[in-house]
Design a protein that fits this description.
CATH architecture of the largest domain: 3-Layer(aba) Sandwich
Oligomer: single chain
CATH topology of the largest domain: Rossmann fold
Number of strands: 14
Mean pLDDT: 86
Strand content: 15-25%
Number of domains: 2
Number of helices: 10
CATH class of the largest domain: Alpha Beta
Distance between the termini: 56 Å
Structural class: alpha/beta
Shape: globular
Helix content: 40-55%
Length: about 260
Amino acid sequence: MITKRLFKRERMSKILEIINERGFVSLKELQRILGVSEITVRRDVKELNERALARKVYGGIKKIDSDPPEAQFAERRMHHANEKTLIAKRSVELVEDGDTIFIDASSTTFEFAKLCKEKRNNLHVVTNSLITALELIKNPTNAITIIGGMIRNDNMSVVGFTAEKMVQGLNVEKAFVSCRAFEPNEGTFETNPSESMIKREMIKNSNKTYLLVDYSKLFKRATFLTIPVKRINAVLTDDKGYELLKTLALNVRLVDGKTK
């Protein structure tokens, strides 16, 4: 345990030193080593994560290069994988050959993009997801516009002021987006302000908006309210989510949950 009080920069340097040696350290151990409060440790860890100097994980923090971006994204795809596959199957039915669409940088919409690549042609897709763009371009009939800006290491998405300005000048027929949380009486929520802004601007320039969300995100909130429920044309979800929304959210428009 460090006896003298460390300034913020010194604490962060020490945290990076520890995780470079160990690969991972828990929040409780950091609190003991640094001799500071839990709130201070969480604040430092959050800033290191946002600056892409380390990766915040459940219960602690780890080296950013010990789990590369592709692996991080693959890990997220595994959460509720069956539900995401079903949602993708339902969502692709709303796309026609030749459509101009926006796809956000989520693991759920990536599954949707994979089916678009296989089942639809001549799409013009706007996206801020590097992984989605690389997947869709495997179909040579597609035209991909990738939003430019700063890359989020943990999500392989493009964000920042440049990306937000570019989105303002783009227009699409349909937007397919997911979220961190969805409260049917309010709308969708995000934890990253730039991701939230990009989705908000893209929705303004879309004729129709479709929300792809599994049951685990329903009736929850996060930091930034992003898409008001009145701007969502329909929600596409899994069987459990469909039953929950059908029963508890009278004002939410659903795509028929019987599609397999």
